[in-house]
């Protein structure tokens, strides 16, 4: 444990600075569009910084280094997959999704499938994925403050919850965008600056004597463990395809001006993430040399925070640890705020909102924010101590098994029907969510069943795609009535004057319900 008063001051300063930046965004938030998508006016550079700040979570800042320290070269697929996922997002989803005009993934499901049931199922999945992703953020916050002060984990969890609420409640997406962009550059600086000092001192310091007791051959050779080939390919599939199905990532592309801006944003995100992910890997390697005892102690996730104190003493160690603590806290805040915005947006549109007016919409959004944060903290307290990065892996598996097939097939195959999409969401979501619940709450299962539950994507993703295709072919008569118009909306550049339909997300639930009742009466 690091006893560092400077770190506590750094955490407080980050929280205050985040609230100050969010308060500035509040001055710009006036309409429902401001709260949900920042009025679709965010520039590519600002949006790329905000997406990167939101995406680089507790798993990226602490978890990657911890897994590299504990499990070696096989874990390099995590930063590779989390970055490469944006390449697939760029190629298949970014521009069409922006052109859809939707606010949320349930909006897109309703536009493309013309089904209230598909919308409701998508809403449930958005809430489930968001809550699952929030759990490791609050876990990481508790771990950080416990490492720095010895305080119980719940202290850090509640501290992040309070700051997140104060950031989101006043200004919604408009405030969050500015906060997350600020957090990306803070996190990059927080990792990069101590690394210069650590690398400079590494050559002159002796290694930890315990390093000889570690099985180095298993650490540097890939695919050494039991079922390693399956686990690796399943991890690759989850990380490559899961990015495009994460609600808090996808919602950020709705904030761009048009499809072209969405593509430019994605390219910028690839550059920003590629530079960042080199850093936690280096921390994991250095931790293997100077802090291998953290693995046996079950504190591998804290290697980033503890490494400076292993190489330095006095004010320098305290200052570097304080900077890392500030970056770690920014990681929890930025990802948590994005997740809360995406979950609150869906809850306020589909479950909490009681009217269609501007004030009712904002009131529902704020109430949904409080509900999302409270439930996430409760689940974090109740769940088992799954490593932070592995908890995020499981969330990626759920996203890859549900929204990824719906988006890819919905955008590029006009034959997708509502029954087909719903069947695929149920199959992929059921299998992957079962694995998440089993792993998160410590339900032990042995043999191949246990392996699949640890990394379900290699089974659940193909089954979800196959189910959607076969069920859609079996229900060709249920092809959405306006699918041709929807395809024009998704793929035609915005400057072309074409009939793109009259879909508007704020009116979508009621208009589709009326159309469904009208169709039922005619039949």
What can you tell me about this protein's structure?
The chain has 523 residues and is mainly alpha-helical. Helices cover 77% and strands 0% of the residues. It is built from 24 helices and no strands. It has helices at 5-26, 32-37, 44-55, 58-71, 77-92, 94-99, 105-113, 116-149, 153-202, 216-220, 228-242, 247-253, 259-290, 293-296, 303-311, 314-352, 358-382, 388-401, 403-412, 418-440, 447-454, 457-474, 483-491, 508-522. Helix 11 packs across helix 18. The protein is globular and about 70 Å long. The protein starts with a helix and ends with a helix. Residues 508-523 have low confidence and may be disordered. Belongs to the sodium:solute symporter (SSF) (TC 2.A.21) family. Residues 512-523 have a biased composition (Basic residues).
Low-confidence stretches: 508-523
Order of helices and strands: HHHHHHHHHHHHHHHHHHHHHHHH
Biggest beta sheet summary: none
Coarse morphology: globular
Strand content: under 5%
Key features of this structure:
disordered C terminus, mainly alpha, Na+(H+)/acetate symporter ActP, 523 residues
Task: Write the SSE topology.
Blueprint: H1 5-26, H2 32-37, H3 44-55, H4 58-71, H5 77-92, H6 94-99, H7 105-113, H8 116-149, H9 153-202, H10 216-220, H11 228-242, H12 247-253, H13 259-290, H14 293-296, H15 303-311, H16 314-352, H17 358-382, H18 388-401, H19 403-412, H20 418-440, H21 447-454, H22 457-474, H23 483-491, H24 508-522
Helix pairs in contact: 1-9, 1-16, 3-9, 3-12, 3-13, 4-13, 4-16, 4-18, 5-11, 5-13, 7-8, 7-19, 8-9, 8-16, 8-17, 8-18, 8-20, 9-13, 9-16, 9-17, 11-18, 11-22, 12-16, 13-15, 15-16, 16-17, 18-20, 18-22, 20-22
């Amino acid at each position: 444990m690091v006893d560092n008063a400077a770190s506590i001051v750094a955490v407080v300063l980050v929280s205050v600075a985040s609230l100050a930046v969010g308060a500035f965004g509040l001055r710009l938030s006036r309409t429902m569009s401001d709260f949900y998508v920042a009025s679709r006016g965010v520039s590519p550079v600002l949006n790329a910084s905000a997406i990167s700040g939101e995406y680089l979570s507790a798993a990226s800042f602490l978890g990657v280094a911890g897994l590299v320290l504990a499990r070696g070269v096989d874990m390099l697929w995590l930063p590779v997959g989390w970055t490469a996922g944006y390449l697939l997002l760029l190629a298949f989803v970014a521009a069409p999704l922006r052109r859809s005009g939707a606010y949320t993934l349930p909006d897109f499901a309703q536009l493309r499938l013309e089904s209230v049931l598909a919308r409701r199922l998508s809403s449930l999945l958005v809430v489930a994925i968001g809550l699952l992703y929030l759990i490791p953020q609050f876990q990481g916050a508790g771990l950080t403050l416990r490492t720095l002060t010895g305080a119980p984990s719940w202290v850090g969890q509640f501290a992040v919850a309070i700051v997140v609420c104060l950031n989101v409640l006043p200004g919604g997406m408009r405030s969050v965008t500015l906060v997350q962009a600020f957090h990306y550059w803070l996190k990059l600086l927080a990792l990069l600056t101590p690394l210069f000092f650590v690398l400079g001192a590494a050559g002159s310091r002796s290694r930890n004597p315990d390093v000889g007791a570690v099985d180095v051959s298993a650490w540097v050779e890939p695919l050494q463990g039991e079922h390693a080939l399956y686990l690796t390919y399943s991890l690759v599939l989850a990380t490559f395809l899961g990015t495009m199905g994460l609600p808090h990532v996808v919602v950020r592309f709705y904030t761009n001006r048009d499809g072209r801006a969405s593509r430019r944003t994605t390219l910028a995100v690839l550059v920003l993430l590629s530079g960042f992910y080199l850093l936690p890997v280096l921390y994991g390697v250095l931790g293997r040399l100077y802090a291998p005892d953290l693995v046996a102690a079950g504190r591998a996730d804290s290697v980033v925070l503890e490494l400076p104190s292993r190489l330095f003493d006095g004010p320098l160690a305290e200052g570097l640890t304080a900077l890392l603590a500030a970056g770690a806290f920014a990681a929890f805040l930025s990802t948590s705020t994005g997740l809360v915005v995406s979950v609150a947006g869906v809850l306020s549109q589909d479950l909490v909102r009681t009217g269609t007016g501007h004030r009712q919409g904002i009131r529902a959004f704020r109430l949904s924010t409080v509900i999302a944060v409270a439930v996430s903290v409760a689940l974090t307290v109740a769940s088992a101590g799954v490593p932070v990065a592995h908890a995020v892996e499981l969330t990626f598996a759920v996203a890859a098994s549900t929204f990824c097939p719906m988006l890819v097939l919905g955008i590029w195959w006009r034959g997708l029907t509502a029954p087909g999409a719903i069947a695929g969401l149920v199959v992929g979501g059921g299998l992957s969510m079962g694995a998440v619940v089993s792993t998160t709450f410590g339900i032990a299962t042995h043999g191949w069943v246990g392996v699949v539950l640890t990394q379900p994507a290699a089974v659940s993703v193909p089954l979800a795609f196959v189910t959607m295709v076969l069920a859609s072919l079996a229900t060709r008569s249920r092809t959405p009535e306006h699918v041709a118009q929807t395809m024009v909306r998704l793929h035609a550049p915005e400057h072309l004057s074409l009939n793109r339909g009259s879909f508007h997300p704020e009116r979508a639930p009621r208009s589709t319900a009326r159309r469904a009742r009208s169709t039922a009466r005619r039949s």
